[in-house]
Amino acid sequence: MILSDEQKASLIDAGIRAPSADNSQPWKYQWDNASELSIWRDAELSGFATDKTFILTDLAIGCVIESIRLKALESKLNAEIVYCPSDESEKIATLVFTSSASNTPPLPNEKANKKVVDETASDRELASYIEARCTDRRFPYKGPVTESESLALAGAVNDKDYALNVYTDKAAIAQFLPSIKEAEQIRFECASLHQELFQTIVFDQPAPDKGMTPAMLSIEPIARPMFRLMATWRTMQKLNKIGTSKMIAMRSVTLPFKLSPAMCVLTTKSTSRIDIIKAGQQMLRFWLKATQLGLSVHPYAAPGVLPLAKPDVGEPYLSRLSNVKRNVDSEVANGQQVIMFFRVGRCAGTPTTSCRRSADSLKK
Ligand SMILES: Cc1cc2nc3c(=O)[nH]c(=O)nc-3n(C[C@H](O)[C@H](O)[C@H](O)COP(=O)(O)O)c2cc1C
């Protein structure tokens, strides 16, 4: 199978549009031949404090892989994924493309045939939302998120080792908020996490090709000068003495969740590197389904991801993070581990969206 330059460009474009933590886009690609694409982590953009185990990078690359796989399906191609992450190698996976017409396996009976055809059709439909998907940090979100929408969101997950729990009951959502707040608060109280967070924020360009501006973070114009002052650790330390990290957690967690009709939680059975990459694939599937339903999505990674990243932050932060993990895992009560929280609902208009690196700059 030989892919045309146009087909290759369209697949890479789908990968580029995938989400990544802090809009870091920590990946690279290489066409090994006319139908095989290898995906690598970008060594310069991965492995920092909150990514010590490559968890954020692997989640982002999972999103990239699923985005390319869905785009391939939409273009009548199959993509077989060969995973190969290891700490030594920067190579994460190879996608092998074949024509879906020539490669459809013979099916034993009509029922099985219909199931595959239905799944392919719904995946192709998901692919058509790759361009529209975005992070929406605005609030309030309006409701309701209906029962059938909740089922559709949960049903976007197509691997039994993962689950997407949807909560629309205010009391059920409230149970998670202290843990989410605690994890967000730590990011402003611990020097290395604070430094990493502010390194990704771009104050002096309106449309950087990676990272995010205060507008993209939905920080109100009136609060932006103060937010800029917080970028200096000494200032942040002083502000924390008057409770600023707690106020930030209220503003970024309590208020937005209280003013949203639904919370979704993605959980996983295993946290091996391959399973985290696959969690990223499931995350993108859920997010595209939400986009299809006209729902806004705002992810919260810190409570699930920070404890798994095991950053070198010392005490008391490590104990605080372990408590967060214990609490959120026990609250989802499905025997799995929490990866990510999402605030979900409806919000009119469009948020300020982030920009992307060029396809050329992502070449290995
Ligand atoms: C693994 C992962 C973790 C993320 N964590 C957060 C988060 O904790 N808070 C947040 O506001 N956005 C989070 N995001 C959203 C990214 O910041 C966003 O995807 C990126 O800036 C690109 O913007 P877009 O989603 O609008 O394309 C996360 C995204 C991914 C893939």
Percent of residues in β-strands: 15-25%
CATH fold assignment of the largest domain: NADH Oxidase
CATH architecture of the largest domain: 3-Layer(aba) Sandwich
- What share of residues is helical? 40-55%
Small molecules in complex = flavin mononucleotide
Number of domains as seen in the coordinates? 2
Shape: globular
Number of strands: 8
* CATH domain class of the largest domain: Alpha Beta
Query: Any idea what the CATH superfamily of the largest domain is called?
Result: NADH Oxidase
The chain-level mean pLDDT equals 95
How do the strands of the widest beta sheet line up side by side? 1-2-4-3
Task: Report how far the terminal alpha carbons are from each other.
Answer: 22 Å
Give the SSE order as H and E letters. Answer: HEEHEEHHHEHHHHHEHEHHE
Q: How would you characterize this protein structure?
A:
This is Nitroreductase domain-containing protein. It comes from Alteromonas profundi. One of its GO terms (molecular function) is oxidoreductase activity. This protein is α+β, with helices and mostly antiparallel strands. It has two domains: 5-132 and 355-362, NADH Oxidase, CATH 3.40.109.10; 147-345, NADH Oxidase (3-Layer(aba) Sandwich), CATH 3.40.109.10. Helices cover 46% and strands 15% of the residues. The chain is built from 13 helices and eight strands. It has helices at 5-16, 55-74, 100-103, 110-127, 147-155, 170-189, 191-199, 224-229, 233-241, 244-258, 273-292, 302-309, 317-332, and strands spanning 27-33, 36-41, 77-83, 91-99, 162-167, 262-268, 296-300, 337-345. The chain has a four-stranded antiparallel sheet. A hairpin with a 7-residue loop joins β3 (77-83) and β4. α1 (5-16) packs across α2, α6 (170-189) runs antiparallel to α13 and α12 (302-309) crosses α13 (317-332). Residues 19-23, 56, 59-60, 63, 134-135, 137, 212, 298-302, 353-354 line the site of flavin mononucleotide.
